[in-house]
Amino acid sequence: MIIPESIKKFIIWIQGFDHRVLQNKDDVKEKLILPMFHYLCYPEICHREYSLKTYQSETYANNLEIAQIYFATDDIKKQNTDTSLIFVEAIEPQKTKLNEAIEQARFYSNHFKTLFFIVTNGYDINVFQRLHSHQEELIFDLNIDTLKNNDVASNFYNKLNFDLVRNIDKNTASILTYSKCSLIEKLIIRHPDLHYFLEKCDFEPSIMREDCHLVVVKPKVAIACNLPKAFGEGNCQIEFSSILLKGLKIHLNHQDILGQLMTGLHTHLDWGCRRFLKELDKNNFTVHLGQITVILSKLEATDLCLCIDEVCQNYKNSILEFENALETWDSEFVNFSQVRGFILFSVKQELWELMQQFTKEFDYKKGKSEWHLFHRKNISIRVSRGICDHAFIFPKFDRDLSLLPSNQVNIVYELNNVNLQSIEAPRFSSWQQDIGVRGTWTARYTKQWLLDKYIPKVINYYSSKSQLSESELLTKITTYRSERAPIKEIDNIKDLVPYLRDIQSWLHIYVENIAASLLKPYYQAYTNLVRNTDSSITGIDYIVGNLRRVECKNTPEENYSNSTDWKNLTFKYAIDCLDRQVVRINNSEYENSFKADLITRIFIWVIENGKISFSQAQLNAAIQALIPLWEQSRFEMRYIYPNQ
């Protein structure tokens, strides 16, 4: 699709804007607001400044501000409430809370009768569209970094550029939403038979998938999704069959899908497990999708969740398939300078330069030995014999250091498009068929090949030529080896602790409720595992204190401060409390993440500090119960929280 020149100019400007230069609200006006509206094609003569002192209410009497107002006409005599388009209020860059300024802008926007009002501190930008008297819709809640995304910037331009906004019929727009909703609501109440005709608008349910394109349709909602390929980014479009939402198409990018939709899959509407969904009353829900907020009936919200469950499960599976097949879970994912990959280990710059030099001398076109298997590409190392690409190795320099010979260089397993195209070639019925020693190497295999074969060969080859000795070169390798036992191979109870800490860290920042089905076997298995702990364990007050915090949430009317003598507490009392939690979770549909966090802290403390008698069956059950919970936490910490 060809991007219009005006949008290109807007994108180039916003991507070059640095909010760190803003020192005060005058800077916000001069360096952000005025240039922004210039690139949104608003003529300077259509812009006027107003001191809000004349229009102050008592509420805002102490908050003198200068507002920027843009009009549809360049005729100063006609610049009035009939032609006003956008009201803009700048606040100090140091103010991170916009609520007070939004309330003030709302008041003045109603006074000036603008179509939109904007509040910004130079980094955060809130854009509201006025629907009718004293009501508005938040259409953009973003920051400068988000706005630098091409798709977001294009959407911003398309919603707020001068030609579009000035052609909005203000009289129609101000009453359109209100009158349409009011009229339809009255008609439905007076004519129940209309329900039958409205149902005729419903979509025909279906699920269709072709390669990475998935379409899921329910009667009230349809979602078309492009699933991610090889750690790439997907997207989706959501449509509704409702007559009120007819024509609305909500586009969500990769970050929106992961950050908003992925939590709480396959849970009920009223459990409070889904980030994008808030219950208004028993029949209506507020739904936040990207930058759009809509109110849906229970039936519409149910169909939306069913569609999201199908789409997001496939979306998640696509990511997991590549992670598992390419064995990348143990490495840190990085995305920089249009390079995506995983850090395997690091070396000093001297060794990296020798590694590069070796690839020059052993280009696959220069010989037929076992080591002539490289194809030099820019600064990366391409392991290839010209027929099959095994791996791409890319250097990531430490930006915190100057470019000196002692620089540390991270060795990155690059997800190169050339390589990814080969594993998706038509000759394979599935891309996994090309993964292996003779095809595309996994991250784990690549790491071991570099450490065990390639680097020793490079060091041996250049040891007589290099000013550094073999031992000096070897000391310049920094590997990142996991100190934890693989979860499925644990035979020591204390080896469970690192995994429990991962889960506790995840639960600690988890905002929504969690489906009880994920926690039931976990609570039961770990209560059984720690049941036979020596009563002399230290920190019994810590254990019972956390349990009381859990139970206080369950029964706030009880006064625990007087119910038990703290000096006579025993570990048996703690186990009785844990047993009650097991009974409670087995009779619950969802669990508060705060309670799950506290209970996990107890399990960690007991395993670290107690002398526990347990059977192999109890340990095995604990491992099996831990795996799905830990894998869920690993996925969300890697993909969901960075995108929220």
Task: Give a description of the structure.
The protein has 644 residues and is α+β, with helices and mostly antiparallel strands. Helix content is 42%, strand content 20%. The chain has 21 helices and 23 strands. Strands 15, 16, 17, 18, 19, 20 and 21 form a seven-stranded antiparallel β-sheet that branches. β12 and β13 form a beta hairpin. α15 runs antiparallel to α20 (593-609), α15 packs across α21 (616-640) and α16 (516-529) runs antiparallel to α21. It is globular, with a radius of gyration of 30 Å. Mean pLDDT is 83; it is low at 54-63, 172-180, 400-405 and 555-563.
Task: Based on the model shown, name its key terms.
644 residues, alpha+beta, 21 helices, 23 strands
Q: What's a quick, concise take on this entry?
A:
The chain has 644 residues and is α+β, with helices and mostly antiparallel strands. Helices cover 42% and strands 20% of the residues.
Radius of gyration: 30 Å
> Would you report the number of β strands?
23
> What is the typical, i.e. mean, pLDDT?
83
Can you tell me the residue ranges where pLDDT is under 50 for at least 5 consecutive residues?
54-63, 172-180, 400-405, 555-563
Strand proportion: 15-25%
Number of helical segments with 4 or more residues: 21
The shape is: globular
Structural class: alpha+beta
